[in-house]
Amino acid sequence: MNIGIVGLGLIGGSLAKAWKAYTDATVYGYDRDKSVTEYAQLSGAIDGALTDETLASCELVMLALVPAAEIEYVQAHADALRGKTVIDCAGTKQTVCDACFPIAATHGFCFIGGHPMAGTHHSGFKYSRETMFQGAPMVLVVPENNDIVELDRIQSMLRPLGFARFSVTTAAAHDRMIAFTSQLAHIVSNAYIKSPEAAAHAGFSAGSYKDLTRVAELNPEMWARLFLDNASPLLAELDGLIGHLTEYRDAIAANDYETLRQLLHDGSERKKSVS
Description:
alpha/beta; Rossmann fold; eight-stranded mixed β-sheet; 6-phosphogluconate dehydrogenase C-terminal fold; 11 helices; 2 domains; 275 residues; 52% helix
């Protein structure tokens, strides 16, 4: 099978390396930074550059860009994608799927929204690795008219990369959940580290500090785009969190032991119930 990968950053580079390591696929890649494409080929992550000519031979095309760039690519290459399967890997789904499902239907190709639930706080090809998706979940968003046979085909194509579980959902449900499980966590971590005490944490910090600051170091350009692309669900989560934090703050300010104890108890019990 011939595979094209558009975007050779952390996720796209890891996809390329995984396809090469675990399958006999021929992999073509493209990155807007030509030096990244050249390095990926020299390192053996791809067999060659994804061009108009090599795209024609690909049965599967995977997009690993921010949502707006994925939409631009699909719009520009719609005719060339006829008969192919296209899977996107952006961090939000509503914008991409709303734009690309109708394009796919009009031009005769299969478009699937995807989100590999894997990664690190680093970005870029140099941090990509073939084992990135081992044991990871993969979320899929399919068109309403997609049948079970087609869905099974997509899962079979992706399973060799190491995905342990596939979840099928809607774009809206995906984006609501990602606002909570991923985006809010990145904002909290990024804001927490801005404390003036952070500079002197050495010798006073252990597991709690490491857990809460792990994703504070992020790609600001990419995450800013993703946050704004998913503004409504993310704002709802932020408003909810601010409300809860205010409850804790008010209890502490009032020296209200019983209210504070109850808040802490409720949070602890909530964690037990959702783990």
